[in-house]
Amino acid sequence: MEKIKRCLIAVGSTNFDELISAIDNKQFIQQQNYRGEYVPSRLQSEKIKVQIEKFIVLDTLIYESDLVISHCGAGILLECLRSDHAICIAVVNNTLMHNHQTELADQLSKEGYIFQATPQTIADKTKEVIEIIRNSTLKDIIKQYPKVQENLIVNLIDEILF
Can you say where in the cell this protein is located (predicted)? Predict the structure, then answer.
C-alpha cells in the first residue's frame, strides 16, 4: 500500500484527553477532531498539518483518510467500516460508564474489521499498523464490512405481503 497520507483522530462527544495526550507526538496525526481540554502541543512540523475541529460531520473526513484512530463509538466505527479504504484503530475509553466500548471493540477486532488499542497501547499499535499498511494490500489488512443492502426491509415486506 501507499504511504499514509491522512490520519484522522476522533474522540466523539465526550472528553477523551487520555487518547489525545497519548498521541501528542509528531509521528501520529495530520488531522484531528477533538472536544476535550488537552491541547496537543508537540504536533507541529513542516510535514505535519494539525487541524483541530469541534462538532463536525465525520463521514467526509473518514472517506478522505487512510487511517482513522478513534474512540469506540458505534457511529464512527460504522462509518469507518462503510469506507472502502480507511483502516481503523479503535481506542477504548475505559473511563466511560460500564466500559461498554470494550465489547464493541473486542467483537469487531476479533472478526478482523478493525484494530483495537487503549490509550496506553496506541503508540505501539499505531507503529504496528503503519508497518502492516506499508507491507500489505488493503484486503490483506482488514476484512471488508458487508455493503449496505438498500431497500432490504422494503423488499422483505414485499415478499411477505405479495
Answer: Endoplasmic reticulum
Which residues have CB under 8 Å from 44's CB, separation 6+?
Answer: 50
Residue-wise pLDDT for 66-105, tens only, equals 888 988 888 889 888 888 788 899 998 877 767 778 888 9
Nearest to 122 by CA among 49, 70, 54: 70
Q: What does pTM read for this prediction?
A: 0.72
Who's near 95: CB < 8 A, 6+ residues apart? Answer: 18
Q: What is the CATH number of domain 7-161?
A: 3.40.50.2000
- 71, with CB counted inside 10 A (0-12, 13-18, 19+), is buried
> Using CA atoms, how far apart are residues 56 and 144, in angstroms rounded to an integer?
26
**Range list of β-strands (E), 64-161:** 67-71, 87-91, 115-117
Q: Which residues contact 83 (CB under 8 A, 6 or more apart)?
A: 62, 63, 68
119-137 pLDDT per residue, tens: 889 888 988 888 888 888 7
Structural domain boundaries of the chain?
A: 7-161
Amino acid at 68: V
C-alpha cell at 56: 463536525
